[in-house]
């Protein structure tokens, strides 16, 4: 694979997709929860890889690099959707915004909503540890921080999520 300032050739991206496309799709599906969204995210991840192939610096494995790109893209997508929902609610005609929202279908759906609103670094730590079952050490490596920082990020995320959930439950 090329690195050091040049973009990847289509054939190189095709090879990356052949080897790692299923992993990227599974990752996107786990975070986004819908096949269509996961397919779109997978395409977008590999388009980004092709445009900025020089972003791979070889400090970690290609799988780790793709995993990080996918996680980052999906979390941003969740945040964008949350912002759009908020704008729609704020600008809804009288009566529509005050209607009770349907309860979350599952804890995973609730977690996705929280991740969409959370601090980005805290959300990434939560995804790696709580969704993916990584150790603090593994998450620290992906985030480029210490194990202690991962623990602090998770503590802040949990405190914020509990407070946010309590606020949502009351309204």
Tell me what you see in this structure.
The protein has 171 residues and is mainly alpha-helical. It is 73% helix and 0% strand. The protein contains 7 helices and no strands. The longest helix has 29 residues, at 62-90. The protein is globular, with a radius of gyration of 18 Å. The termini are far apart. The model is unreliable at 1-5 and 92-104 (pLDDT under 50).
Quick structural gist:
With 171 residues, the chain is mostly helical.
SSE inventory with pairings:
Layout: H1 10-32, H2 35-51, H3 62-90, H4 107-117, H5 120-131, H6 136-143, H7 147-170
Helix pairs in contact: 1-2, 1-3, 2-3, 3-4, 4-5, 5-6, 5-7, 6-7
Q: Helices and strands, in N-to-C order? A: HHHHHHH
Q: What is Rg?
A: 18 Å
Strand content: under 5%
Terminal residue distance: 52 Å
Tally the beta strands.
Answer: 0
Structural class: mainly alpha
What descriptive keywords fit this protein?
single chain, 171 residues, mainly alpha, disordered N terminus
